[in-house]
Structure formats: C-alpha cells, structure tokens
Amino acid sequence: MAVLNRTPNGSGNIILTISEIAMEMMIIMFSPLFALALFLFLPFWTALPIYIPIFIFGFIVNFKMMKSMKLPVKTGLEEMMGQEVVVTDDIDPEGKVRFKDEIWIATAKGERLEQGKKVRIVGSQGLMLVVANTEEIKKPAKGGLVNPIKTARES
Description:
By secondary structure, the protein is an alpha+beta fold. It has 2 domains: 3-69; 76-154, CATH 2.40.50.140. 38% of the residues lie in helices and 26% in strands. It has helices at 18-29, 31-35, 38-41, 44-69, 76-80, 148-154, and strands spanning 3-6, 12-15, 84-89, 94-99, 102-107, 118-125, 128-133. It starts with a strand and ends with a helix. 9% of the residues are buried.
C-alpha cells in the first residue's frame, strides 16, 4: 500500500511498503519470463526486437542482485573490527571514541590513551568497544594476515 505524504508546500511524495518494493523487484526479476508471452500474441519477428531489450535488462538486474548477495556483511561489530577511530575522552580505563558519527564507550585493557589519539577497534565487551593503540598492533608477516582480536589478547 502506497502512502501519500503531504508536505507543507502541498507537494506529495510516495512511501512504498516493503511488500510493494518486493513485488516490484519480483516483476523486474521475472520480466524475461513474463515477456515470453509476447511470442504468443505477436508474430516472431515483431516480438523478438521487443523481447531482446527486456531480456538484457532482466539479465543485468539479476546478475547485479546475485553479485550483491555475495558481498560481506557491513553492519554491526563485523564492520567495526579493525577500523581506526579517534579517542574523544581519555581512556583510563574507560573513555569514549568516535566511530563514524557515533560516540562509543571504549576500554583499552589497562593502558591509558589520550584524547585525539588514533586507535584501532579489536573487540567488544557487550556494548563497550575494546581498542588498542595502533602502534602496538603487530604488523603481519610478509604475505600474512593478523587477527586483530588474537593480537589484542596476546598483549
């Protein structure tokens, strides 16, 4: 169900519900199949030039959709791990850091970090971030990867 919102100047914008968006995506996904009906009602050489652009459009949309489904998760703690943040309140033993436009409570496992210092997120304890000084995080061996959580636990 579409809802028409009226703004003070009288113009309206349409807000679509999730079910409507899903229905529209299904129509786009299956448009090449629906377009096959053209061949039932039109001569082959008339239906073919109409069907080819619909097929190409549907193929591209389906390809992009499948590709986006394979992307890694970019929300929550998974996104935050390993990111560099700035200390906004001294951390001793707790303080605050800025991640994107959000302020988070953070701890540094016994070390004191001053305001303005850049640190890296290495874990969490509930809703509190665990950070480490960027100089203390071990550099990976040539061609190797470092697990930031394991590195923080080792120190």
